[in-house]
Amino acid sequence: MKTVFTSVVLVLTLTFISLSWSEEATYRRHIKPLFDAKCIGCHGQDAAPEYYAFKEEKDMWLSKGQGMRMDTYSHLVFYTAWPDTGALMRRLDDGKTTGKAGNMYQYLGSTEEERQQNLKLFKDWVGNWTLKRWKDITKEELDGIKVKY
After folding, report:
1. Domain that holds residue 64
2. Which of 51, 91, 127, 139 is in Cβ range 3.0-4.6 Å of 104 for a Cys bridge?
């Protein structure tokens, strides 16, 4: 009887784990909570300017430790797919393929394990993790960007 119970528990556990692994990353369920925990202090509505206002006075905003506003789905798509294609990825990337981590990678967690886990979540959400800019990306590569709401 104990063997049957153990087998049932094992099957249920494996089923739950496989469902968790196969769950598609979405902005609402996965990215927004992570963003709110790690990024909102410098990139939220109350702290950060819109993209063009940031660009006009970049040095001033950086001296205050502020980045561009990214606290909504639309803002993150702006920095992922278009018009600032790949910007989010370039800043969050761990540098394993380029040799240099993005300037925001360090804020994804307090340990390398946590940073890698959170980076994987962003990569799963984005789909085609590209460091390319709009002028360099192909239509096929752009089509690979998922960013599900």
Report:
1. 25-143
2. 91
